[in-house]
Amino acid sequence: MNIANKLGTCSKCLAIGSALILMGILAGRATAQSVVKVSGTQGNWQLTLNGQPYYIKGLDYGPDLKTTQSTTNAYAADLVATGANTTRTWGTGSTTANLLAAVDKYNAHVVMGFWLNQNVNYCTASNLNTTLNQIVNWVNTYKNDPGVLIWDIGNEVILQAQNYFSGTTLENDRVCYAQFVNQISQGIHATDPNHPTTSTDAWTGAWPYYAQYSPDLDLLAVNSYGGICTVQSAWASGPSNNGVSYSKPYIVTEFGPSGEWEVPNDSNGVPLEPTDLQKAAAYPNAWACITGSDGNGAAGVSLGATAFIYGNKNDFGGVWFNDEYTTSMTRRLSYYSQYKMYTGAASTANQPPACQSMTLSQTCNIPPGGPFTVTTDFVDPENDPTTFNIMLSEKYINGSTSLSNATFTPTGPQTFLVTAPNTAGVWKIYVYAFDGHNDVGIESASFAVQ
Fold first, then answer.
1. Does residue 13 surpass a pLDDT of 90?
2. In whole angstroms, what is the distance from residue 65 CA to residue 10 CA?
């Protein structure tokens, strides 16, 4: 799924052509280049970092990099505190220097993304050489930084092409794109032979294109959510779907709870968002399929993953996927689930309130400006006093991913009288439970104003 659709904005998809004048300044910023290799034989591969085995335990990086170095350092410290050794970006530019400087402090590494536009016809575009040269320039800028792990070319372009093209044009575009990815990979390898290349897409159906037209890539890569446990079987089926597997290993560059595009609709006809508890459980369940600990054969083929997402946006997609709330680094259940997933032990830190149930006195036919009651059952593991806030989303009315404060009055323990908006349509309501220890639980539901 497109990152912009998941999070509402794409601040991390940095423009690869920006700030070229900084390259000469940044080029000499580090000298202890890492050497990363894909080693092994068919079905028994591993990544090595400076000659030592390296399995990716990662979180995709969501916070804005246009901030102070100290702020990025704090985010990096918080990210690696989960046990993660890797993060991933969707774009590489001048501000990537902040992230690399931060991860270098904590001996972590970055899957370095290069954003390629999804609405381009790669058979007819006239500026591809410029794009290729810009990418190679950024590789030259950062290749000596010890934090560089892998170069990741593009994100979900082969799948998303279906939103812009059809028929023969679509098929030709996908072939041309995969061929262009191969050219970029060749250019990267010529400049930097010490780091592998890959290209991310959102379905394993893109892999046959890479297998045929992008042979220079060292790895396959995929973003997968609800279908994550089918990835290994797709790899084993191979590019011809005949049981002759692919000849290269893969990494997973996004995984997490089922997305808006995968879940059933609720009674109001909008996607039913998983609960906080379900979201938290989705990460270790997916990790078992990624690592092969469930016996699916992924061990030695899947070389690790970066989970979606170490993020802090309080908007529609942020509530759905982020493991934190706003820039205060207020942690959610998913953060602690990721900690246990990567460290193998439950965190001993204070835990967020977890909602056991949430009910609305009325979910449809609410008059504009009319009252309805919301009742929640948040349980705090440490019995901390809990404070509440309620916010609303009108995404299913006008497409906006921002949230607004609801008008509400507490009428009893975890019972709130909410005033419906005046605009007709299906709204989302979010109840936030804060425990006073920088943790928050969030639960959501829909209601229809008519």
1. no
2. 12
